[in-house]
Amino acid sequence: MEVHATLAALLGTRVWDSWANNESGEPPPAPRLRCSSFLPWQRPRGVAKVRTARAVWSFDHRMHSRWSQSYLLSRKHTSFILLCATNCNTPKYWFGYLAGMYSFMSFAEGKASWMLNYSWDGNKEVDPREAMKNLAMAELMAGANVWDTRGHVMSGSNDIQTRTMIFNWIAKHEKTFSSPPRRPVRPVGVYFSPKTRDYFPEQFIESYRGMICLLLQSHLEFQIVTPRNRQAFRGDELILPDVRCLSGSELDWLQSLVRDRKDLVVTGETGRYDDERRPRAENPLHELLGITNLSRQQTSATPTRFMYAPQCPGKAYYAELEGHFNDYALQEHYEGARFQKMRQQVSSEIVRLSNSRPEVEIDASPFLSTQIAEVNGKIHVFIANFKGLKSNEMAQQVPERNIRITFAGRENAKLYVLPFLGEVQELDGERSAGRITFRIPEVSKGMVAWCGD
Fold first, then answer.
1. The whole model's pTM is what?
2. Which of 177, 212, 246 corresponds to the end of one domain?
3. For residues 351 and 220, is the Cβ–Cβ distance under 8 A?
4. What is 225-242 written as a DSSP string?
5. Considering its fold, how many domains does the chain have in total?
6. Phi, psi at residue 422, to the nearest 5°?
């Protein structure tokens, strides 16, 4: 698997540029790094010994939080992602963690993705059983496999009875979570640019991660699109979050999307550089869309549907989350928060650009993460609740109540809900104007809901 990595700080600019400009995508020879080069406090055993030609390892703490590092080891059939984390179990942290998981699984292109993580650091204020459940729930709702270890080693368990309960429940509902793979319904695409990440890592990751979090918290279906899987994208709208580096083939692909009447959301300095970090005299994407005033936000419905934002709303949104998102997750009232107003404005602009209602509409707080996907021919909603979590203090969520989910064209359908570690329940809905709405009374940790006959 061809996965580029942000290794400039470790390899040096000259070596890194030679890798980033290599069309084969093969990394330079792996340097002999000391343990401290990977983690300031501890290195997972075996990471520094990776030397296989078929493997590419990835280092990018910006994909998660300032206190976590990540490694990606991909082989022919499987993808292993190692996320080394402390008890940073705040709601904002978990959304950044999900953004990383969805991204790595997109890079893996359908290969089985194993998330190797540490659920508990030994903090006596946190119940290890609840920490284990939170990690397993988040990985399952994201569509990844679950790995359980004791502390910061690669074996054992923090609580074997809890592990047994979780794994038995997963086995019982394996078809819901693992087989067949989840398929997009009508997603909004978010473009991940390896070249932009290579050359402008901080600027791009802030915009990209912020946009993913905004879509997750707005409960809009999304799909991460990469240069390797872009031809399989079937959505009607694509977001380019400050994708500064675009190659000629990427520009040709975007032009084909415009010809097919797809919608584009272009933010920041998207298209300003080519794929070798050379500035362009004229931005070909601006020429394609007819963007002339680079300082003004603009939206066009004809002849091409696009939205242009010179200041990336994804970057601005994540900056707002850095402020008081975790504080509001502990309160009842968040409607007046700046992040909430920004989220509502940007998400409504994204929906309005497509000029059609989403296939699935979800009314829930921004402290819930939702993924919409098709499984076994039925539309599923995977729900993760992070409300009320507090780092190093509270690992048990405040339940989210009265969630409303509306499906299109389901006149005689019922809603089936599977709470995390619970059993399937059946709910009736209210029908109106060719759509059906269901009310879920409560979500404690997580839940899967699907519409069926």
1. 0.84
2. 177
3. yes
4. E-TTTGGG---SEEEEES
5. 2
6. -115, -165
